[in-house]
């Protein structure tokens, strides 16, 4: 048995499914956010695996890897903004539990 | 040896990820996320994308996890209560469904013989990255830099506004 593209894609699927599971299960905004990060890194793993397994010597195919570079940069932006929003939420409500934040309901 | 390492690093990625989703303390979740990201970067090394593995450790395992820990300490997030059983079961069912569907998609499609990784000299990957970034992808690169600036300004605006409102009340 060799380590093939399918194995990496399956690990990526597992990571994504676990992130989705966490988003469904948890009510703490911070942990939900962490699970979103897990889903993001699962997609990064799939991208890198595809770009590596489709590369040849003539065509090194950097596109997938470059795309991952951009994703990491955007993810850093997203984390900083999201955590700022969470801190603001904490200042207003003194809670980060999702079921206690119901401003938009009423 | 290669598949043994692959399985080890895959387990190192998947098992802590599961604890991120289930641990009740946010601090434990963040620590597990750190381990998971290190395992992921080891998988990147196995895919011979060394530059991205370093980037993963620096940005994700370094900066982002530290940011998470900082916020957890700042807002004093305690233990969450146990989720309700019905919620647990429904989420677990969604997880099982996704894993099963993924397994069927990836391994059950009759996709022929599994390919071995093709040998491309990735020795000067950072150099190739730089050349590509500053020639073909110059505009997206600059847009990304601008986006980081926008995010920074946005974060400052968000925290400023909350402070002003808190002062008015």
UniProtKB/TrEMBL annotation, chain A:
Signal sequence coordinates: none
Spans traversing the lipid bilayer: 6-25, 30-53, 65-90
Gene Ontology CC terms, in alphabetical order: NADH dehydrogenase complex; plasma membrane
GO MF entry, a single one: quinone binding
Domain of life: Bacteria
Annotated PANTHER family: NADH-UBIQUINONE OXIDOREDUCTASE CHAIN 4L, NADH-UBIQUINONE OXIDOREDUCTASE SUBUNIT ND4L
Biological function: NDH-1 shuttles electrons from NADH, via FMN and iron-sulfur (Fe-S) centers, to quinones in the respiratory chain. The immediate electron acceptor for the enzyme in this species is believed to be ubiquinone. Couples the redox reaction to proton translocation (for every two electrons transferred, four hydrogen ions are translocated across the cytoplasmic membrane), and thus conserves the redox energy in a proton gradient.
UniProt protein name: NADH-quinone oxidoreductase subunit K
Gene for this chain: nuoK
